[in-house]
Structure formats: C-alpha cells, structure tokens
Specification:
- Among the domains are: 56-183, Alpha-Beta Complex (Dipeptide-binding Protein, domain 1); 278-497, Dipeptide-binding Protein, Domain 3 (Dipeptide-binding Protein, domain 3, Roll), CATH 3.10.105.
- The chain has helices at 2-11, 45-54, 102-113, 131-135, 165-168, 179-182, 239-247, 259-265, 294-302, 306-314, 339-343, 351-360, 380-397, 408-417, 435-438, 455-466, 470-487; strands at residues 25-30, 59-61, 67-69, 72-77, 83-88, 146-150, 153-157, 201-207, 211-216, 230-235, 253-255, 271-284, 319-320, 372-377, 401-406, 422-428, 490-502, 506-507, 510-511, 517-518, 523-524.
- By secondary structure, the protein is α+β, with helices and mostly antiparallel strands.
Length: 525
Amino acid sequence: MKMRLASVLLSLGLLVPLAAAPPQKLVYALGGEAQTLDPNLNEWFRASTVLKALFTGLEKLDPNGRPVPGMASGYKLDKTKTIYTFTIAEGAKWSDGKPVTAQDFEYSWKRVANPKTASPASFYLYYLKNGKAVVEGKVPVDQLGVQALDARTLKVTLENPTPYFPDLLCVTAYMPVRKDLVEGPEPWTKNLKTFIGNGPFRLTEYKPKQHYILTKNPYYLDAAKVKLDTLDIEVIEAQEAQLAAYQTNEIQAFEDPSVEGLRKYQGTPELNAFPRIGVYFYDFNTSVRPFNDARVRRAFSISINRAQLVKNILQTSEKPALGFVPYGINHGVQTTKAFRDVVGDPIKEDIGEGRKLMAAAGYPNGQGFPKATIICQANQQAKDLCQALQAMWKTNLGVTVDIQNFEPKVYWGQLHAGNFNIGADGWSGDYSDPMTNLEIFQSSQNTQNNRWSNPAYDSLIEANHKSSDQKVRMANFVAAEKILATDMPVMPAYYYLARVVCKPSVKGLFKTYLGHTCFEYAHIE
C-alpha cells in the first residue's frame, strides 16, 4: 500500500525529494603558518592546533577537557605513583596503515630529550626519570625513563609523582613520530609521502603561507567517530581579512576575532568563548639597560591600567592579569576554588609608587631615560595595545617608548634574538596546575625571552616538582609569584579567553582549555 501511494504521489509530482547531506568539509582560518610540523620540536600555540589534528599521543583531551585514551587503551600506575605501564591500543595505526608501537613512543620521547635534537620543547620531558639530566647532557639518552617492553607495552618512570601526567601526555612533545621517516634521506616534514601521522586527519596538500588541506585518516583508531572528510586550514594573518572572508562565506570559522568581529557577533550563536589557562604578557629584556634594573621593570608594570586595556582596546570579557597563574586553575588544597581567588593578586597597580621607583632608579619624571622600544606582531589589536601602553607610560612616568611591529614569523625571531626592550608574548598552560604557568620562568627556560634568572625562584619550582604535598606546593607557588612580582621579568596584561566564530551549520567545534581548536568532533549540519 505504501509503495503504491508513493508511486501515485511521484507521478503527480507531489513527493519532495530528500535533502542532500551537506559536504563534510570545514574551511577554517588560522592567523599564520604553523611554526613547525614536527610535534617533537613544537612549543607554539598555533602549530599545536594543526599538529593535534595530525597526531595523537597516548592520551587526548575530550570535549570536556579531560584526558581520555588516545593511542593507549589504558595504563596501570604502581604504588609509588611514579611508574606507568601503558598498553598501546589494538588497531592503533599510522596514516599509511603501519602499526603504532611502543617503540615509536620510546624513540620520540628520547628524540625530544636528546640535546643533539635541541628541541625547544625538551623541558616537557623533565618529568621523566633522568629527564632534566638527559636534556642537559649529563647522562646518556638511553637512561631516560621510558622503555618499550614489547610492541604494545610502554613503561614510563617519573622522577616524582605527578598527578597531572595524563594531561601532559596530550602535549605535542609527547606525540609519536616514526624513526624510519625522521632519519630518512630527506627532511620528513617537507614531503607529503614521508609526512605520516597518527591523528584523525592526514596532510594531503600544503602550500606555504596559503593553506593546509587535511583529509580524514581512515587508519585512525577512532576513525568511525570522525565526521569531517576534509579540513581546509587557510592561512589568513590579518584579523580584518579573516572577518571579510567569513562574511563572504569563503571560510566557515576563524579564531580570535578582532574588535570589529567581536562587536558584530557578540551575543549571537556564532561567537563561542571557551576558558583558557593562559596569560598575555610582555617580556622585559633584563639583559640590557634600562630594564636590567628591577625597579624600572616594576615601575612600568604597576603604572598601567589593565582594566582600561581590556575595556577600551580588547572590548571583551577577559580579566586583567595582576598575577601569573590564570583563572581556571584550581588551588591544590581548596580544590573547588581557583588558585587566583584563594591567594589573591601579587601585583598592585600604583602610579605614585611607580614614580618613586623610577626616581630611585635615576629617572625622576622620566629624565635621562634612554631610548626604548616595545615590539609586537603586525595585527591591529597588538598595535593598539602597544599604543595604549605607550600613552600610559608617557603620562604616568614621563618616558617615551617607541613601537615596532613585525610579521609573525619575523617577530618571534626578533624576540628570541633579544632585539627588543619590551616584547609582547604569552603562554597557555598544558595542564590544570599552577606549575604549568610558573615553570616557564625558570632559568633553564628563560634564555630566549626575558633572559631573567633567579636561584630562589628556581629552588621553589624544583621543590614543587619533587613534592606531592599540596599544602607545601601551594605555599611555594605563592612565594614564587611574589618573587616574580618583585623582580618583574614579565608584565602580565590579561588572562586569555579562547574564541571561535563559526557558521551555525558547524557543530562540535571547540577550543580546549589550552586554547587549541579541536576538529576531531566537528561536523557540518
């Protein structure tokens, strides 16, 4: 009966054809090229967004920000809480169909820690047994606390109990690469034939400064759950150009919208905000005058109005940063409260005190202050922030600071080379513990940015690496923040929020608490 009725309706032209399913293709704008496509060499925010679509570690973050099994089906933790035994999931494969093995992870982690590799991400391996000693070249690489017992069993030994170690495993430095490809005759990341990953997507086309075309990886362990067939990541550096491309439907999503973009989409379903455990700050080059004087650095930091920067320049809901640990990281003892709420802020803005510090440093009312420059990237928001700071320092301290901006790739080279007095910078943490935002100021990690070193600070951080007593750890973190607020090698400006603007048809796209966009669960309706 139903078939007969359908035939009649069809003959009368009354049947409405079923709507075709939308193509599962997402076009996403990224604000610049990935700084590297080698996960073992990565410590950059933008590169992480691309790499996490192409590689997966033993663990990965789910939509709720929790570490869940990635390439490992699970693990066992011994009584000392320092030895993990991971089982590589059955069916874990590379994008060329070859099996992912425990040996791949052992090779990759030793590669990161090996001083010959000179990976900027090597500090992530400090948590492993002998990790720091290996990185510093004091013990052989083969003594690093990672060992493949067989193809599917990986034994990991830590220096100390580390409750957030599963979160760390989601960092790109802990992702695997293949020895046969890395040590091949040609640079493995430069050729699509040798660029093999193990993530939800694989790289099928790459045009420098233009785009990355990724397609679904049929060999991915969770391929059945990946709905996108194609992910087109377009490199569009200018925020204004991203907004224009979005409005003309050339792209379906972009991150970190400009002030104009925020105004246009604020309060609409197209603007999505996510908590992010990061801080936007400015490095002081502590190796050159006048910022080799802590009094000058502190004066500059307490003589600005961060609330005005957020209200007038960002015009968003970010919180002014008067500390170095962001909101979103809970206190280790009062675990239901944010660390920031429990301990308060170590920095107090005070223009009068700033002027006294400048006078004590030999620059009363800015007299005799040498030429100084603040550098930033060449986007409008970064330039507007620098102009606002420039005006505040002129009004409040009587000093003149020039502004210089660079395109992204050039910018980081200038910063790392020390060609600056004050430089825009920032950091997003990798796990929910104050350590993730405070360990980056240790002497061993500061050589490329603010060039600051403080033995007392280093000791506090090292003590917390070795302790699992949360009362002791939180007290040490408070003391460490006070040292930062006194020496002020960096000037925190505001705590991050992560934002994505996307078309209503784009579902399942989100930012992790690290600020990286996750594409694995996205689809088009």
